[in-house]
Amino acid sequence: MTFVKDPCGIVCVLVTYMAVLYADYVVTHWIILQTMPNSLWAPFHVVAFNTIVFLLGMAHLKAVLLDPGTVPLPQIRIDFSDLHAEKNYGHERGEWTMCTRCETYRPPRAHHCRICKRCIRRMDHHCPWINNCVGERNQKYFLQFLLYVCALALYSVFLIVISWLYPCQDCHVDVAQAQSRMMHSFGLFVIAIMVDQMHAILYDETAVESVQQKGPYRSNRPKMALLAEVCGRGHPMLWMLPCASLNRKHHDVPLLSHDV
Length: 260
Hints:
Blueprint: H1 7-35, H2 41-65, H3 81-84, E1 92-93, E2 96-99, E3 104-106, E4 111-113, E5 118-120, E6 125-127, E7 132-134, H4 139-165, H5 175-182, H6 190-202, H7 207-211, H8 223-231, H9 248-251
Helix pairs in contact: 1-2, 1-4, 2-4, 4-6
């Protein structure tokens, strides 16, 4: 478990939960209960919508609190005094690189985050909306969070369209009020972020590597194998569940298992 003490990130996390709870209130109270007061579909939609909200909250909380893949610091301090004076101190030593900020060696695809102040394995980017880096261990939950937000947005739009097509005869909802409901639809903008995350996973290229124009890390690896690395080795049906853990055996391999 980890929590980054960044004021901007903490505010963004609070704003995220406030937006989700407000959207839940609007959709439940003003769209479902107001337009389907005497229908058996009302309790069904309330339960279904809030189930997605619950899964969204679990995925977001795990993305916030889980260690994204922090590279551990060595027990014995490494002398990097000579490297600080060199211009090419970031050169590769085999596939490993050296970080003079953390003063340690880091594995391939690890990068230093200036906000977390540590090197993160397979770091994609630092996201203020989860107040954490998106890395090797929490990218699955960040992707789930985006998928659930998209699902809620599409679900709310679907309910709005249903309320237009089948208006409640006893509700006296005019067109202006019905159109105002559309203003409460949320989350459509995260579709672009979700597509970007899927591209980063399926093409094995993080956002940092894309900026550095390094290209795919393993261009010939199957797409399902790349998804399994992020979502876990279990059945694909379990990939959408925030309670399904990653492959613990894979992640528990020591990062510094040899003397440096």
